[in-house]
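INTERNAL AUDIT FORM
Audit reference: QA-55
Scope: verify that the stored structure record matches its stored sequence.
Auditor: D.O.
Record contents follow.
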Amino acid sequence: MPFFVYIIQSQADHSFYKGFSEDVFKRLEQHNAGESSYTSNKLPWELVYYEELADKRTALIREKNLKKADRSRIIALINSNKNLLKG
């Protein structure tokens, strides 16, 4: 079963949040419904990046790597061909 890492951007302050999920679009709905305490105060959120990974372990490792990335690296990733939103 594939897992996904994703990046959402707050439309309130343009900050980024990185996460992983089995269903990116359902997870985005949860963020925008205020179901995540960390993201609930920066609504609304827009999905700006996601990529598919083979399994949960790989997705968790990738998510951890993304959480360490600076803003310029995140923007480069959003604009890259790895972004499934571009496909």
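Auditor finding: record pair retrieved intact. The chain has a mean pLDDT of 96.
Action required: none
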